[in-house]
Write a structure and sequence with these properties.
It contains 8 helices and 7 strands, in the order E-H-H-E-H-E-H-E-H-E-E-E-H-H-H. By secondary structure, it is α/β, with parallel strands linked by helices.
Length: 203
């Protein structure tokens, strides 16, 4: 925890799950018809819904339907993941499915920002390293993947991938300043004092 009570995210670890394909947009991650909710609770069950089920709600071949990967918490993707709309429901659905970190070739900027607001690191690596990692997690669903946010590396099976974390994201996660709501709550007294000192705020 940081001094302000926000969880520091220096690393994340867990078994992996690979979702292949470039330009997977937020509508694929969470279809718009499932966004008619007051809260984000329960969204996890609808992650990748149209890729996982046909029109008769029969399961299709998709990693999120694979029982071997049901407890996975590290998602491995390809290029431009999370493109399309800016809907924050996409990372919310992934988080509620159980994803704690995402490793990929590249991410849409707004999607990465929405992930940061949930404390989910979006870590990038080159295409060859990602392909190797995807192959590995598909063949080894029970092996832990370590995402070192502070050290900018991904480790598995005695291998280490040189990774990259956006400087601002890494600072926010490692120092525990990513959760602005929690920061405001933990500094409530200071905020009230500042508000009282402002001439244009009616106290």
């Amino acid at each position: 925890m940081s001094d302000d009570g926000v969880k520091k995210v220096e690393r994340a670890s867990g078994t992996g799950i690979a979702v292949r394909g470039n330009d997977i947009d937020t509508d694929q991650i969470i279809p718009a018809r499932f966004m008619k909710v007051v809260t984000f609770d329960g969204l996890g069950q609808f992650a990748f819904f149209d890729q996982r089920f046909d029109e008769d709600d029969e399961q299709k071949d998709h990693p999120f339907n694979d029982d071997d990967h049901r407890e996975a918490s590290v998602l491995v993707v390809n290029a431009n993941f999370g493109c399309g709309s800016s809907r924050e429901h996409a990372p919310q659905a992934l988080a509620r499915w159980g994803i704690d970190a995402i490793v990929g070739e590249s991410f849409a900027e707004i999607f990465a920002g929405n992930c940061l607001a949930l404390g989910i690191p979006t870590v990038t690596a080159d295409g060859e390293a990602i392909a190797d990692l995807q192959n590995y997690v598909e063949s080894n669903p029970d092996v832990e993947i370590e995402v070192d946010v502070a050290g900018e590396a991904v480790r598995y099976d005695d291998r280490e991938i040189a990774a990259n974390v956006d400087d601002a994201q890494r600072k926010a996660l490692v120092e525990g300043i990513w959760d602005t709501t929690a920061l405001m709550k933990s500094n409530e007294q200071a905020i009230e004092e500042t508000a009282r000192s402002l001439p244009y705020v009616d106290t």
